[in-house]
Amino acid sequence: MSEHELRVSKIRDGTVIDHVEGGQALNVLAILGIDGSEGFGVSVGMNVPSDRLGRKDIVKVEERELSQSEVDVLSLIAPEATINIVRDFEVVEKNRVTRPDSVTGVLSCPNRNCITNADEPVDTRFDVVADGVRCDYCSTILRADIADHIDV
Amino acid sequence: MRQDHLITATQLSRDDIEAVLDRARAVADDPAAYADRHAGRVLALCFFEPSTRTRMSFDSAAKRLGMNTVGMGDVDSSSVSKGESLSDTVRVIEGYADALVLRHPSEGAATLAAENVSVPVVNAGDGAGQHPSQTLLDLHTIRENHGLDDLTVGIMGDLKYGRTVHSLAAALTNFDANQHFISPESLRLPRSVRFDLHETGAQMREHTDLEDVIGELDVLYVTRIQKERFPDENEYHRVAGEYRIDAETLEDASEDLTVMHPLPRVDEIAPDVDETDHARYFEQAHNGIPVRMALLDTLMENAEAAEGMEVDR
Lengths: 152, 313
Ligand SMILES: [Zn+2]
Hints:
Chain A: Zn(2+) binds at residues 109, 114, 135, 138. The complex is a heterodimer of chains A (152) and B (313). Helices cover 12% and strands 35% of the residues of chain A.
């Protein structure tokens, strides 16, 4: 199935996040803080056949370009993603995501006894380690289940 | 040690540890020389969890350096129970004291506290996290009995929730130490501690039976298995019983084996062990005084040097 068959229409201005691991599209939107109430156009393709990933998700967001910190966090759940910036129907920039050194304020700590889960005025902070992330406060390591702890 | 705080044992290098332990030796040799070292300074003892001996140990160490101490009273009657955040509490207490010692039931509490104040913070236990000042006195005890290299150490009991275990295991990676971890399957070292040990290339093995390794050990560090860790009381009694030692258990051990325990013990070390030459846990507890004096002295010195630098600039 080619992309135009998906009825995920081309966008004029915005961002196309391609090669997202199948099933992670809604988490991508969560990371971006998009729930539809913002008013801009959002299209999501899920479980699209992909040569590289087997199946992939695609997220298109109109009139919105991603910040570096948003791209950093995306890299944790969609390490193969490509970010296409579209202006006037043309892809003007195409980037692969890269893993950041740390992620602040996006994930919640899975350790219920962590001080970041008490009622403290503090953002969570995780170091990115070999195959996951690690809480800077309690040292708990979060691996495959990162997407379950997105807190936005 | 050029650190501002003592939060986890993973932050400590071999040099940091040896500097504090050298100073602890000097303190033990001539306590009078340290008696007025920090006169006029105040140490706040912030214990959000019941503790008698760690608090008394810091209190006594501070007073032997000429410091005064202030405490919070019972957790139940303090503002903690009125819902004030830890961040706010330590910011207020910072105004009353020149350094803080913190014990708190949540992991990461000391890290958070240190981010909110500019005076030195010592982590005296954060939930199932770390207890690094205990580790310094543990290492002092090991050093005085065996030295810190070419060591084989067995750590037994509740390795999952035991904060003294987490700190000791991390600190031992600075030395040439083989570490054996002996526990029931359900109380193995947590993933984060194993991760750090693997990262540093530590020589470590995990066991469920003390018998497998007792003959190889220079040090056996016993910790308490708590009833609360088991959903079922019978299961607790069955499991805990397998991790108790008595004089007979130690018959297979090396003559020079040192048995340690962070105390308080309940029944995991039988009283008949006290009569053997292996028992060092009371000596270990007493080492808390010179080691905590050395630690506080070092941190206060660092803080004063930092203040001096600001003035000079
Ligand atoms: Zn945490």
